[in-house]
Structure formats: structure tokens, C-alpha cells
Design brief:
Elements lengths: L1 H9 L5 H28 L2 H21 L7 H24 L3 H22 L5 H5 L16 H12 L6
Helix pairs in contact: 2-3, 2-4, 4-5, 5-7
Length: 166
């Protein structure tokens, strides 16, 4: 995976630092869509529903900058991975605020795992067919340390995406 990523960097195909920032913006746009929906429903004001369309179009446009090519339902999977990751971060933050640290940490880990899966899919680092053929706790046959699929993806994202690059 690291070699594949290094090859992509050499070809200058992407600025993952900016893409990571963009994914956070997309997460927030999904959340804004949800808030417009619930506000419209709670207040009975359809004008909030009308605002969903503009936000959705913006979210779609920005998501296309990251997901340039996809097969099957990868587009929808990606959107839902980002949305679920964001929600888990929010719930984790609330749990942290009320002193439930262990629950918060568990939610943060789950959020990061989903976020890592998003990147694994969208950097074309995953071949689901190959994953099914090997040990449930390994990414490939050469792995010595078996951390599970999500653990491996998380480690990969830590290595290849540095949000502090300016």
C-alpha cells in the first residue's frame, strides 16, 4: 500500500492534505443537509427543505474532486462513510464532555476506522476479492503483525495523509 501511494505521489496525482480538508468540509455539508431537514420537519417550514438542494449540489460538486472514478455504489458508500465518521466524532465529543472518556475514545476509534476505509476505497488501495482470500485479521499474506482490516487501513492513512502539510 505504501509503495502504491508513493508511486501516486511521484506522479503528482493528488494533494492529500487539501483533500483531507475537503473531506471535513463535505462531512459538514452532509450535516447541514440533515439540519435543514430536521429544522424543516420540526418547524413545519418547507423553506428549510428547499435549502437542502443547494447544499446537496455543493456537496456533490466537492465530492467529485475526490472521487473522480468509481464503480457500483462507491459514490454512495463514500458519502455515507464520511457522514457516519462525522456523526461518531460528534457523539464522541459529547460523551467526552459529560465525562464518559472510554465511550468517547471508542467512538473516536470507530470514526477514524470509517474515515480510513473511505480513503482506502478512494485511493484504490483495496481489492475486496483479495481481502476475502486471506486471514480475516490481515490485509495481505505478507503481514507479520495482524491488526485487522480497519487497523491496517488506519495505519496506512496515518502514514500517507499528513494534514499539517502547507
Amino acid at each position: 500500500f505504501i509503495k502504491k501511494f508513493d508511486d501516486m505521489k511521484k506522479q503528482d496525482k493528488m494533494d492529500l492534505s487539501s483533500d483531507q480538508d475537503l473531506t471535513i468540509a463535505i462531512m459538514n455539508l452532509v450535516s447541514i443537509e440533515e439540519h435543514f431537514f430536521f429544522t424543516g420537519a420540526k418547524l413545519g417550514k418547507t423553506e428549510y427543505y428547499d435549502m437542502i438542494k443547494d447544499v446537496r449540489e455543493m456537496r456533490k460538486e466537492l465530492l467529485k474532486r475526490i472521487i473522480k472514478e468509481y464503480e457500483g455504489e462507491v459514490w454512495c458508500i463514500s458519502k455515507h462513510l464520511l457522514a457516519a465518521s462525522y456523526r461518531l466524532m460528534e457523539v464522541g465529543t459529547k460523551q467526552l464532555g459529560i465525562g464518559k472518556k472510554e465511550e468517547a475514545y471508542d467512538l473516536f476509534e470507530k470514526a477514524y476506522n470509517l474515515y480510513s476505509l473511505f480513503w482506502g476505497i478512494n485511493l484504490n488501495l483495496l481489492n475486496v476479492g483479495d481481502i476475502k482470500k486471506i486471514d480475516d485479521n490481515a490485509i495481505n499474506k505478507e503481514d507479520k503483525e495482524k491488526k485487522g482490516f480497519m487497523g491496517k487501513m488506519g495505519e496506512l492513512v496515518k502514514k500517507v495523509i499528513d494534514c499539517c502539510i502547507e
